């Protein structure tokens, strides 16, 4: 493996933590003997083009410095290439880094761990989900939570996460279950009234909410968590248990496993790794060993 590696940096991640985190991460990598170049983009499309160019030129690894949005963008650049992906997680959610066991918001420690792993050849292949031509590492979300995202993305003010809290309150006021048609592995069809349906390659989204607590990055399957037609009060009681993953014990929650999942529902957008991928119907597939990652 070449000793030149590429830092793929989002300068706006975590209210500027991305730009600040790049320096200690780069220092740790250089101290370990690596030559480090940095890739920035003027927007997501430009950043992805630059990351793909670095991979095509033979960089030894692509190290994404940011949050889940940048990690997802980096996946699009490295998937299927054999180029290892490392994560310096300094965003708000950091769910893919959490699934890989990387340090969170500790850029120097992440840099040292990545350097040690690269030197020791400690890389592994993990599964990814795929929707059309879009890859995702953690969760494809739909239903109540995606409606909150839709509303929050339409709001210009207030800034930051607070607008999503307000969006959640507004969606709760208009809360209703949605009629879903769920098809597993092209065969088993289930028509259900559901509050939300989450398809997990990884276990968590939203900064540690373990919506698919049994998801395994190496089993070749997606976990499908269906929260049924619970009322507003039940939803509010169940919601806090998502952080522990114990919501799956509630009688209104059902979990399936499948290699491919089609979700159909009217007026619902799917979000993968927190990024919008389009309106339902959408089909997600698990692709075994789709990407090589660096980590513990």
Task: Describe this structure as you would to a colleague.
Helix 1 (13-31) crosses helix 5 (107-120) and helix 2 (44-56) packs across helix 3 (68-78). The mean pLDDT is 90. The chain is globular and about 55 Å long. It has two domains: 4-121, Probable inorganic polyphosphate/atp-NAD kinase, domain 1 (Rossmann fold), CATH 3.40.50.10330; 136-288, Tumour Suppressor Smad4. It contains eight helices and 16 strands. It has a six-stranded antiparallel sheet. Strands 12-11-10-7-14-15 form a six-stranded antiparallel sheet. A four-stranded parallel sheet has the order 2-1-3-4, with helices on both faces. The chain is an alpha+beta fold. The protein starts with a strand and ends with a strand. Residues 1-135 form the DAGKc domain. One of its GO terms (molecular function) is ATP-dependent diacylglycerol kinase activity. Keywords: ATP-binding, Kinase, Lipid biosynthesis, Lipid metabolism, Magnesium, Metal-binding, Nucleotide-binding, Phospholipid biosynthesis, Phospholipid metabolism, Transferase.
What is the CATH fold-level name of the largest domain? Tumour Suppressor Smad4
**Spatial gap, N to C terminus:** 19 Å
* Element pattern in H and E: EHEHEHEHHEEEHHEEEEHEEEEE
| C-alpha geometry | globular
Give me the Rg, rounded: 19 Å
**Domain module count:** 2
Number of strands: 16
Side by side, the strands of the main sheet go: 6-5-16-13-8-9
Q: Which percent range fits the helix content?
A: 25-40%
Q: Please describe the biggest sheet, giving its number of strands, its sense, and whether it closes into a barrel.
A: 6 strands, antiparallel
Low-confidence stretches: none
Strand content: 25-35%
At CATH level 2, the architecture of the largest domain is Sandwich
Classification by helices and strands: alpha+beta
Q: Given this structure, which CATH class of the largest domain is correct?
A: Mainly Beta
Mean pLDDT across all amino acids: 90
Number of helices: 8
